[in-house]
Design brief:
Blueprint: E1 2-3, H1 15-23, H2 61-69, H3 76-87, H4 89-92, H5 97-104, H6 108-117, H7 123-132, H8 142-167, H9 172-183, E2 187-191, H10 196-206, E3 213-216, H11 221-232, E4 237-241, H12 248-260, E5 263-268, E6 281-284, H13 297-313, H14 315-332
């Protein structure tokens, strides 16, 4: 977690926010995204490689390929190419870029961009590396390779949850953020593109215990209007979910929010995220990227923990509002027995 310096001329913050700014500058809430020690039962960064950095001949072809792709943020199209190579591991080193493009149902330039994204000069350079992996010395069916890739995706997500668990050993940063959100009237929650669902999820439950939650998911000039209206209504805190791929408009919105005087709490995937420079508080939690689309199990769990921290900050109010909701729900028979 990182708390940015407050610029001159910004409006005075609520008591909880002021305390947060006084104390949180000593706290860094980091997730070690490149840990060298693997969680028990999970694949480490070096699995699939030999003792001297070469290919591990005992590993399956798909495992060797997944090790090659590790640590690179790929677009959905590039991930489809990666999955295609995993499923055709034995012959991958002998396929031309056009053949890979045909198998993955993408364009040939997309295959070239994929190779460059992995750090190679082009596809021929990548193919030379594939040949060094010795992918043809062990046969693996398409179903076996696909199943192995899915297991690796699940293992990567488990590792992310383990890291989040280790980070939450110090609950202070999330507790302070929860108090800050609980003090906001109204509380703004921002989420654009892939982060819309997470913002709505948080907003749905927060509205059960907080009197004024406003979820912002509409892009364009309407977003500016909503920010100004919330500021005029007394709002001083904005919670933003900004996960990759980072929408430019989300970053620009946070910048405008800070210019107005909002305190910005951002949930994102890394301390190096583009929102780090425009948020006051950054809660970073890793996103899994082994499948065609990102998996957000760890960010979702952090969202629930943040909701719990908000509730813990105002227990009496939470109890009263939940009891009122239960009475209303029973009267209206909202749920089946």
């Amino acid at each position: 977690m990182r708390v940015a310096d407050q610029p001159e001329g910004r409006a005075a913050l609520p008591v909880d926010a002021a305390r947060l700014h006084e104390t949180m500058h000593l706290l860094v809430w980091r997730l070690e995204l490149c840990q060298s020690q693997p969680v028990a039962g999970l694949r480490s960064k070096t699995q699939g490689r030999g003792a001297r950095g070469g290919p591990d001949r005992t590993a399956t072809p798909s495992t060797r390929l997944l090790a090659l792709f590790d640590g690179h943020r790929l677009t959905p199209t590039q991930r489809r190419i990666a999955q295609c190579l995993v499923e055709h591991g034995a012959e991958a080193a002998f396929l031309s870029s056009n053949e890979v493009a045909a198998l993955a149902s993408v364009s040939q330039p997309s295959v070239t961009r994929f190779a460059v994204a992995l750090g190679f000069e082009g596809y021929p350079d990548l193919r030379r590396q594939l040949r060094k992996l010795g992918l043809g010395d062990r046969r693996e069916t398409v179903d076996e390779a696909r199943r192995n890739a899915w297991q690796q995706a699940a293992a990567a997500e488990i590792a992310n949850l383990e890291r989040l668990s280790e980070t939450l050993a110090d609950p202070t940063p999330v507790e302070d953020a929860g108090r800050l959100l609980a003090s906001a009237r109204p509380l703004l929650v921002l989420g654009l593109r892939v982060s819309i669902s997470m913002a709505r999820y948080f907003g749905y439950f927060a509205a059960k215990v907080h009197p004024d939650v406003r979820v912002l998911t509409a892009a364009g000039s309407v977003l500016d209007d909503q920010l100004q209206q919330a500021w005029d209504a007394g709002g001083r805190v904005l919670l933003a979910f900004v996960l990759p791929r980072y929408p430019r408009e989300a970053v620009e919105t946070l910048r405008r929010a800070r210019e107005l005087g909002f305190t910005v709490v951002a949930v994102t995937d890394s301390q190096l995220s583009p929102v780090s420079g425009v948020a006051d508080v950054v809660l970073a939690v890793p996103v899994a990227s082994r499948l065609v689309f990102d998996s957000h199990a760890a960010p979702m769990l952090l969202t629930l923990v943040l909701l719990q921290a908000l509730c813990d900050a105002i227990p009496a109010q939470v109890q009263q509002r939940l009891e009122e909701f239960e009475r209303s729900a029973a009267e209206r028979q909202l749920f089946v027995p």
